[in-house]
Amino acid sequence: MSSHPLRIFTGSAHPQLAIEIADILGVPLGRSTTRHLPDSEIHVMIDENVRDQDIFLIQPCGEPVNDNFMELLLYLDAFRRASAHTVTAEIPYFPYARQDRMAKGRESISARVVATLLEAEGVNRVVFVDIHNPASQGYFNIPVDPLSAIPVLGEYFRRPEFADCAVVSPDVGRAGLAGKFAEFLNLPLVVMHKRRTNFQETRTTHVVGDIKGRRPIIIDDIIASGSVLKQIDILYDQGAEGKAYFAITHPVLLPPALGILANHERIEKLVVTNTLPVAPFKRSEKVEILSIAPLLADIVDRIHHGRSISERLVLS
């Protein structure tokens, strides 16, 4: 057991998630202040003593991505200068995760840049949830804990009413994630093959697996512009029945996705987690939000007390 006090702090990106985590652990949320100055610079201040303490900073980096990431870096610098014993960054939604390789010549590998900046500011450990490419943890030279929301989402679909479903991967890249989800639920797996035409648009070419007579549960890591929502008709061409469910970890939910979700008659519900805050205008009867806080709180407790977290990285 660590002899250093456990402290939970938050940036301004998602304070409600940090409050949930702190409440579960029974510790007060640390006091800090973020200000946005008139010239758009960000100023952060830690409002209490953190010397020789184990700090867990909760800061998903959703919209506005650059502001939230810069705030995270500034807090890391402030904690280091305030002589914190360790600082763990819990970044449920990792910024620039989809820019993880050079798809064309002369591109930046932006996810690697993010990792380099985090390490440069002295972070001791990084925790994230369902990162777009699991191999991105190799960008770090420090401990990284790649969590998955599959158990959280899976519990929702473990009810008997979903026994006639099939788990659908929207592309080959998500097949591993979908395969674990299908195993968790003891359901068949179907894989859609698609080709990306640009950053916003993709096109499904064919389906592998038997979807006939089954309701689809499409699983993915991120829903942003909602291209995956538009591609389910091919499943019904292959014999799918009933309305489709989506199980997606990170609810970026840009306006095009909200429009498709509201108007597509074959979509029953979008089930997401609160790795990102979901603004009121993004909520509807079709959107179900599950809390990731119990998982993140358990990881904080395990790290602080030096216990293994491997059992939380593998589905039971």
Automatic annotation (TrEMBL):
Residues 7-122 form the Ribose-phosphate pyrophosphokinase N-terminal domain. Signal peptide: none annotated. Keywords: ATP-binding, Kinase, Magnesium, Metal-binding, Nucleotide biosynthesis, Nucleotide-binding, Transferase. One of its GO terms (cellular component) is ribose phosphate diphosphokinase complex. One of its GO terms (biological process) is 5-phosphoribose 1-diphosphate biosynthetic process. Its EC number is 2.7.6.1. It is an enzyme of class 2 (transferase). It catalyses: D-ribose 5-phosphate + ATP = 5-phospho-alpha-D-ribose 1-diphosphate + AMP + H(+). It holds the Pfam family Pribosyltran_N. This is ribose-phosphate diphosphokinase. It comes from Levilinea saccharolytica. The lineage of its organism: Bacteria, Bacillati, Chloroflexota, Anaerolineae, Anaerolineales.
